[in-house]
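Postdoc handover notes: sequence design on the structure in folder B. Input tokens:
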């Protein structure tokens, strides 16, 4: 009898040990988040897209199961860890990115593995919304002399703003809202408007060849062009371009451009050889000058990756790059 009780006790200890140890199981993964997400259908499949505004904080949580406890790793797009990740968040359940940038949008992967079976991987696409201040550029053409008294002067005002999703534009002259057909002396070329584009193309063929840039921009849907035909006295005024992304960005962004009878496009010239070949460690100075232009033009230096090296020095139209490295090409 005592032997039976002893055996039963040993069996109970074994069962208790197994229960405490738990059942081995491969990992599973699920990604959760707070904020807004929508279903997007692309190429016959639907996926969940998380949307966030630039400057906000991104938090994605990876819920995992499995025994032993799976190890977690966050990666982005191609499987490499983003250089913007905080080291502590790469291997945590929650991925935290403060003040997210537009360049940090993309597909994020959560990978969990515990040595049993294949790793569990789930992903989510993050779409970063943004809206930059619009920029107005002016293009003009001078037609043939009319009765030897005056020349027809036509001006194109082009408004561009970087945004995601695509921006909607509206033009104002003073307090007056300008729309297609509201003024016989004004035409507005809507993005992807084929009839307007064709009209613009026909006219620009007989004008300056540089105006063809307007057609390309129009076909890309990146801009909205205001055409002022044969300028009249009332056309010399303040023009406002308002860029908006409804239900995404508030308030709207706008820019004011004053058109006068002195308004003219500037000329720009780069006083360097192209391309510039230098050795690492050397100092390079790039000089850019402008002539003419009303209002006075503003010079801005940018690189192929949108940002200048921290050590660069900009003074007027001169950009100086001390101790240049192999990472600096592309200006």
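Designed sequence:
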């Amino acid at each position: 009898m005592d032997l039976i009780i002893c055996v039963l006790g040993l069996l109970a200890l074994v069962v208790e040990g197994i229960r405490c140890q738990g059942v081995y199981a491969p990992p599973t993964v699920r990604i959760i988040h707070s904020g807004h997400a929508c279903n997007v259908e692309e190429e016959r499949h639907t996926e969940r897209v998380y949307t966030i505004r630039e400057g906000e904080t991104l938090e994605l949580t990876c819920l995992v199961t499995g025994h032993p406890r799976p190890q977690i790793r966050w990666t982005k797009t191609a499987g490499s860890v983003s250089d913007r990740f905080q080291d502590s968040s790469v291997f945590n359940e929650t991925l935290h990115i403060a003040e997210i940038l537009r360049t940090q949008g993309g597909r994020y992967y959560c990978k969990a593995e515990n040595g049993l079976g294949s790793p569990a991987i789930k992903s989510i696409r993050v779409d970063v919304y943004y809206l930059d201040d619009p920029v107005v550029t002016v293009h003009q053409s001078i037609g043939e002399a009319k009765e030897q008294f005056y020349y027809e002067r036509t001006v194109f005002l082009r408004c561009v703003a970087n945004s995601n999703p695509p921006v909607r534009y509206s033009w104002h002259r003073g307090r007056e809202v300008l729309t297609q057909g509201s003024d016989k002396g004004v035409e507005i070329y809507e993005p992807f408007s084929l009839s307007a584009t064709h009209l613009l193309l026909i006219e620009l063929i007989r004008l300056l060849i540089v105006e063809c840039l307007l057609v390309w921009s129009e076909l890309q849907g990146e801009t909205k062009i205001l055409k002022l035909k044969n300028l009249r006295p009332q056309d010399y005024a303040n023009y406002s371009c308002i860029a908006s992304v409804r239900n995404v960005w508030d308030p709207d962004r706008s820019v004011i451009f004053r058109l006068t009878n002195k308004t003219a496009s500037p000329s720009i010239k780069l006083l360097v050889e192209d391309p510039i070949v230098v050795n690492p460690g050397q100092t390079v100075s790039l000089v850019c000058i402008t002539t003419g232009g009303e209002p006075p033009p503003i010079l801005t230096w940018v690189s192929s990756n949108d940002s200048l090296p921290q050590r660069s020095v900009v003074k007027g139209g001169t950009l100086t790059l001390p101790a240049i490295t192999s990472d600096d090409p592309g200006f």
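Context for whoever picks this up: The longest helix spans residues 2-21. Don't rerun without checking with the PI first.
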